Every structure is written in structure tokens, then in C-alpha cells.
Amino acid sequence: MPNDSVFGDIKKRLKYHPEVYVPKHWYDIIAESRSGAEPFFVHQMKKEDFHSTATLETAIVDRKTNVDGQKVNWFEMRQIEVRRTDPMSLFYKTSHNPEEEWKQIDLAQRGRSTAVSGITQMRLYEGTRAINPLKKIDLISMLHLVSSISQLAKLHAVTALKDWRSQTLNWKISRFLRLDSCILQLSLMLHDVDSRAFY
Fold first, then answer.
1. CB 72 within 8 A of CB 65
2. What is the 3-state secondary structure (H, E, C) of 96-152?
3. Is the model's pTM score more than 0.70?
4. pLDDT in tens, 37-86
5. Strand 86-93 and strand 103-106: pairing?
6. Can you tell me the distance from the alpha carbon of 199 to that of 185, in angstroms, rounded to the nearest whole number?
């Protein structure tokens, strides 16, 4: 994968940071992983930066065949492309051969004209995310394992656990992970974000 070298550089830098307890530690590791012509720039995202893809999911159709009538097999896809010029279509290849032509899947609902620009996305989180009560107990039980030199990390963990509401967090896991990735790409287009910044 093209991004394997990215993970490799971050992993090499990780050995200089033996204790990683809070997100800030990862920010530092990633920022230090590369220097020179192509350094990494860390964008610290906030909850306001995350939007729900629910409206996008209802605006598209998970087609079983492409525009040429060929059966779509997500597991055979090796490259996926979402184009700003044609956001209601998904383009894919089943190999890394540069001479292979892109195949197209029409995601638009038949008989309806849906423009991506007309889709409004709500914030994914309006408040503090809830945590499962059992998970909260589990995390608190492990606090003593945090090194004494990282009191800041302990403070962050305890504060976070106190702030979280004790209710069950229901996770929705989609079977079509690749389709979810494409929905994310469409979402980024709506907010004019360069999706390459996430790879």
C-alpha cells in the first residue's frame, strides 16, 4: 500500500517515545516522524469537524452491478476513486495495473436528481460521547498501571471518565467498509476538505 511508508516512519519514531498515554503524545510522534521536504502536518480535529454520513447514505444506492452490467465484488477491488466532477459515481479497479480501465458504479437513485451540494450533514456528536458503564469500570481499574512519571496522563484519564455519561454506547458497524470509505470521501467533498490529508 502507498501509505505503508507513512506507518513505517511513525513506528520508527515511536521507539523514542516509550510512554504514550494521551492523544497529544501521538501528535508529537507523528509531527517528528518526518522532516525535510515532506514533513507531516498534524491537524488536531475537534468534535465539530466530524459530520454524520446518514443523509449521504440515504441519498445513494448500494448497486450490485456496475454501469456495464458486471457484478460488483467489493473484495476484488484494489483501487477506489471518488471524483469531484462526478460525485454520484464510484470508480474502481480490480488490480494495480495502470493500463486497466476504471469501472464505474452509479450510486444515484433512479428517477431522482440528487446533487451532493444539496445534501446537508449534521454534526456527528452534539455533546460528550457516552461510554459503556462496564468499560468505564475497566478503564478505572487500569489507571494504576500508568507510570508515575505521567501524572498528566492520569489527570486526563480521570477527568475524561468523570465527564463521560454512564450509558451504553451503541456502535453501528457496517459490512460494507469500502462503501463507508467512499461515503466519507463524499462527505469531505461537501466540506471542501482534501481527502488526501487523511492518508
1. yes
2. CCCCCCCEEEECECCCCCCCHHHCCCCECCCCCCCECHHHHHHHHHCHHHCCCCCHH
3. no
4. 788 888 888 888 889 988 888 888 889 999 999 999 999 999 999 998 88
5. antiparallel
6. 12
Q: 3 Cβ partners below 8 Å, 6+ apart? A: 199
Contact 52, 121 (CB under 8 A): yes
User: In sequence order, which ranges of the chain are alpha helices (DSSP H)?
Assistant: 4-14, 23-32, 54-59, 133-141, 151-163, 177-190
One-letter amino acid at 113 equals S
85 touches 95 (CB < 8 A): no
Beta carbons of 59 and 42 less than 8 angstroms apart: no
Residue 186, all three cell numbers: 463524499
Whether residue 80 contacts residue 67, with contact meaning beta carbons closer than 8 Å, is answered with no
Burial class of residue 56 in the structure, from the number of CB atoms within 10 Å of its CB (0-12 exposed, 13-18 middle, 19+ buried)? buried
What is the residue whose three cell numbers read 452490467? 69
Question: Left (φ > 0), alpha (ψ -120 to 50) or beta: where does 194 sit?
Answer: beta
Separation between Cα atoms, residue 58 and residue 188, nearest integer Å: 17
